[in-house]
Amino acid sequence: MPPTFEARRSAFEDEGLARYRQLIAEVRSRYAGVPVGYSESIFQGLGESARAEAHDPYSFAKAIAEGSEVTAEDKQTVDRQAEAHQIDVWIFNSQKRHPTSSV
Questions:
Q1: 3-state secondary structure string, the chain?
Q2: How confident is the model over 8-49, as pLDDT tens digits?
Q3: Residues 6+ apart with CB under 8 A from 101
Q4: What pLDDT shows up at residue 97?
């Protein structure tokens, strides 16, 4: 890799991502092991980085992210988890309407 690109890559990783990594560390220190439900599949990687404990089926979040129909089984699973207080935090995209919301 040319030195210019290597320098820019290093600067991005060391400086540009510093705040992002700090925030992930803060979330991890507060929520590691906390049962989490999420409605956007993009959260999966972030959740893993934060060491949150994902409880809902990935297929549920994937269907929502792709704009396809959530299966009745996945919806029942998520509802059951919420009713049984197996999920302490729910992560969602406020810019998108979800089938689990009444708004």
A1: CCHHHHHHHHHHHHHHCHHHHHHHHHHHHHHCCCEEEECCCCHHHHHHHCCCEECCCHHHHHHHHHCCCCCHHHHHHHHHHHHCCCCCEEECCCCCCCCCCCC
A2: 999 999 999 999 999 999 989 988 899 988 888 888 888 888
A3: 92
A4: 59
